[in-house]
Amino acid sequence: MKLLVVGGGGREHAIIRKLRENPEVTEIVCLPGNAGIAQDATCVPIKATDIDGIVQYVRENPVDFAVVAPDDPLALGCVDRLHALGVKCFGPEAKAARIEASKVFAKNLMKKYGIPTASYEVFDEAGAALDYVKRCPLPTVVKADGLALGKGVTICFTREEAEAAVRAAMLDGAFGASGSRIVVEEYLEGPEVSVLAFTDGHVVKPMVSSMDHKRVGDGDVGPNTGGMGTVAPNPCYTPDVAERCMKEIFLPTVAAMNAEGCPFKGCLYFGLMVTKDGPKVIEYNCRFGDPETQVVLPLLKSDLLTVMLAVENETLADTPVAFSDGAACCVMLASGGYPGKYEKGKVIDLGRAGAMAQIYHSGTGRDANGSLVTAGGRVLGVCCTAEDLKTAVERAYAAAGEIKWDGMILRRDIGKRALEF
Ligand code: AMP
Ligand code: GLY
After folding, report:
1. Which of 9, 120, 214, 256 has its CB 3.0 to 4.6 Å from that of 113, i.e. a possible disulfide?
2. Against a cut of 0.85, is the pTM above it?
3. Class of domain 192-318
């Protein structure tokens, strides 16, 4: 079978490594991929957001199955367009991808169907929003409606911060058109859990839970990033919490999407807060998380391609999705300055890390001499599995210690909170 994977980061690298385990897979093409993915797949330089380019490529180079991994092409209707060509795909169509692409859509869905989430107000007009944040309870959370590269959320502890956040989104265009509409919502407290789930629109099969580390600095300080590391499983996701999530959140969400005429097929990502009143949804993503995928898929015992085909063919009920009892840790190595400005093109020395861990490439390239160089903010994910989390964390850090480049940064405390839980 010839497969297509759209995307070019660590998540796609982890998906491709797992898909390759199926002996029927003869070739994987990745659009656009990166220097690390090029060792596992054929990379073609077509951007993930260039939907016309992707469609033209597939017309000229037929594939048997396509996996569309990032949020942007899903929201832009990449799966709809590939379906129209008769290509089977893993990933939701655009109208279902709204569950991530529009926070207003997601919040209204949860309200209508009684799915637990933070209470909220929606604003299309800055004056009304500014009035509201003068009197709303604090802290409060201001969110841009649309996709904003993970930067559209501001937690506000004072009225001044809330006003500034509203102005930035609605008057200064900090998130472009994504911020012309905003959600202002209740601040929730409790440990966070990410749960990725396969769904074919009929049944939901959750994957092993995970914990992201979003802030750039040790001890969760500094600005938000795309994610500086992950562990799985997440210890606060107890069997009790899992049962409540299935009953109160997962199944009702899938049923709600069906009732709204936009059945969701693919990987539905639940960003959850375990509050004292039970689990609540912070956000939905319409795709695999990055870097959650890098710890979840190595623990998947079932064949990934078989599961993905079952999602598309709506036969997930009959398809086992099993995870190992072990644990996994992914430590992200990033460019100095990230998530702010950073330089690219630094030569990477991997040392012996390749023999000690799975190295998933997020942002790498080749220079004129063919050397592996940095090409993004997040550069490499160093991932290890083990029987227990403590060992997985130790192994990931031992491998990360082998890797060097000028200005490399990493968090030293990935897994600490989970181990102390
Ligand atoms: P999001 O981009 O929606 O994932 O939000 C980024 C981060 O902001 C989340 O991972 C949470 O840590 C935090 N956050 C978002 N919404 C809330 C909320 N209602 N209460 C407290 N923290 C929140
Ligand atoms: N790691 C969070 C996300 O993928 O959105």
Report:
1. 256
2. yes
3. alpha beta
